[in-house]
Amino acid sequence: MTTPPAIAVVGATGTVGETLVQILEELAFPVSTLHLLASMESAGSSVMFAGKKLKVREVDSFDFAQVQLVFFAASPAVSRSFAAKAKAAGCVLIDLSGALEGAVALVPEANGELAAKLAQPALVTSPCAGAVALAVALAPLKGLLDIERVQVHACLAVSEQGREAVTELARQTAELLNARPLEPRFFDRQVAFNLLPQVGTPDEQGHTAVERRLVSELRQLLGLPELKISVTCIQVPVFFGDSFSVAVQSRRPVDLVAVNAALESAEGIELVEPGDYPTPVGDAVGQDVVYVGRVRHGVDEDQQLNLWLTTDNVRKGAALNAVQVAQLLIKHMA
To answer: Are 162 and 231 found together in one domain?
Structure first.
């Protein structure tokens, strides 16, 4: 595309939406006009972009024919409500909610080559932060491992659930440190100084929506639709930065030297030296990569690979991936 597109960001006042706008500016993303959209409650505020104050407008009354590309950085309900309208206007859609049927999940470091093959106007999902982190780390290893199974324990930051959850953790922490009675509001129980082994409401099989989404999107991103994946999502008292304990079962012995070499040379990965380990607060927050450490065999099994991953869930896992996907897509827009 030779002419910079006009772009709309739906959910521009949310945690991810604000970061997305910031990254568009940081990367000098080519845009002719940027439209910031939100609900009636959030409309009217202003956001700085490229040295100008842009007013946030109501998404309900917006004419999507004014733009060529739309980021949906709001709730699944909002994506479902306005995606058809944007699609009918001929817009390329990048949805971060996972709500749109038929959308192709893209992570440039894992399956970016699919961008050139999409029908136009493209309908794309920027996957959940967990699927992005895992795909970035596992995609370079596909050729080295005959992967049989992946087991994941996902330690999710409260920002995964938006600004209200961040505020709740801060409030609970302050109440406990000041010896005041704790009254949970956003979460159904104490999250500060605690671990909640369930993120969302489980279905009849005991799995939550975020766990099922992570499994589905990771299979898509790796191109392994039958891959066996076990996931437990844990709500941890961390504001920003998801972390993952990952066990990959291979059908043949794992060559750790080759694994480390592949991780070292892969895009989007920062491999931590043996004997050290990355943390969300000390390393990942505010950064544009997935940190990988503690690369090792199973305790008594050389066919198992264990990894520790951490990344900024809002920045790398959500906003940056969506912008990187858009960079791929505009090359193929008419």
So the answer is: yes
